[in-house]
Design brief:
Layout (H helix, E strand, L loop, with lengths): L1 E5 L1 H4 L9 H10 L5 E4 H17 L4 H16 L4 E4 L3 H14 L3 H19 L3 E5 L3 H9 L3 E3 L6 H8 L2
Parallel strand pairs: 1-2, 1-4, 2-3, 4-5
Length: 165
């Protein structure tokens, strides 16, 4: 069974109108308990992205308030949405990935998390899919052998292939 690790670039699509939102919504509806994951750092990034969208006028203040409430309910307070810490040990192991793949620090932390979880899940016959829209992160994850899903370019049918595996 595949679990789905969301990068902020994909998770924000659940809470603001963006290309790929329908695919993210589909994953939320279909994945089931305990199969959705993100870093707490990613939740902070989504929150900041929503603030930027409100401040730029791309979403209204009521839309912002609703999105923040939904983020709190579906991710922060949900026991079945797994939230992972970005502690010092994780950050230290992620630093070489930034250099190796020319990615930013947060993407390196997400990639290191994906690599660690992928290894753990594959040892038990399961797997992980990194859900992201950031092209550099996706290329780096693919180069490291991690399954990826880009909600901006892939479809619900692509999700089904991972959901049923």
């Amino acid at each position: 069974m595949h679990a789905f690790l969301f990068d902020a670039s994909a998770l924000v699509k659940r809470y603001a109108p963006e290309v790929g939102a329908a695919v993210v919504d589909y994953l939320f509806a279909q994945a089931g308990h305990g199969r959705l994951l993100c870093l707490m750092l990613g939740v902070a990034e989504v929150s900041a992205a929503l603030v930027r969208k409100r401040n730029s006028g791309s979403i209204t203040s009521p839309m912002f308030a609703a999105a923040m409430t939904q983020l709190r309910m579906e991710v922060l307070m949900a026991v079945d949405f797994i939230k992972l810490p970005a502690d010092n040990a994780l950050i230290a192991t992620a630093i070489p990935l930034a250099e190796k793949h020319a990615i930013n620090a947060t993407d390196a932390i997400v990639l290191q998390t994906a690599l660690t979880i992928t290894a753990q899940r594959r040892a038990t016959g399961d797997d992980l899919v990194l859900v992201a829209s950031d092209q550099r992160l996706l290329r780096a994850a693919q180069a490291e052998g991690v399954f990826t899903l880009n909600p901006e370019t892939q479809t619900e049918t692509d999700c089904d292939a991972f959901l049923q595996a």
